[in-house]
Structures are given as structure tokens and as C-alpha cells.
Specification:
Layout lengths: L9 H21 L17 H6 L3 H29 L4 H23 L3 H20 L4
Amino acid sequence: MGYGVARFTVAYWCVLLAALMPIACAGLAKYRGFGKPRREGGYDNADPRGWLARQQGWAARANAAQSNSWEALPFFMGAVIIAHQLGAPQTRVDILAVLFITLRTIYVVMYVADLPRTRSAIWTLAFLINLGIFFSGWR
């Protein structure tokens, strides 16, 4: 990479996907409330957090997955940026970033499906992958 030349790497695209993931989870959590009047339990845009807090089952779990996705985002973003700054091997960073996004997607599915042990195992793997990204430029 030459001086002054930046390229949008696969890992950077993965950062975008990670930033969109909690928004997708929020949409999933709100899905069954769309199109129904508030008085019938429909989505309440005047009190979205209160409405989400009253949800049960898979909608509540999708909302929890949204929260966890927001929590995972800063470390992933930081890990990718640090790996790039340290000149980590790009192919390694890209592969690990794609693996992180894949695992986080599976994590959301396991959360919504109410499979807590599998979900926790996937969370752990994704966290370890993120550590791998973070330290990939360490020499």
C-alpha cells in the first residue's frame, strides 16, 4: 500500500455489517408489532424502549441480541482499526473479520431460537476471534 493510498478492505466492510447487525436485531424485535394499532399491542414509536421491555419470547430475545450487538461493536471496530494501523497481514485480518461476522450472525440466531448454551459458546468463539484480530499485528 503506497503512501496516501487507502483501500476499503474486507475487514472494513465487516465493520459496516457489524454496525448494521444491532439495527437488524431491533427490526426483528419490533417485527410482530408493526402494522398493529398501539391499543392492540402494536409497536409504540412514542415509547419504543418501554414497548420493547414489555415484549416476551423471541421478540425479547431479539431485543437482547440487539443490546449485545451494540456492546460487541466498539471492541470489533477497535480491533480492526488497530490491526490495520499495526500493518497486520491483511488476508488474516479479513478472514478473521468475516469469521467474526459469521459467528455473530449465528449468535443472534441462537439467541432468538432460545439456545443459551450454544449461544454462549458462539459468543466465546467470536470474542476469541476478535482477540485474534486485535493481536494480529503484534510483532
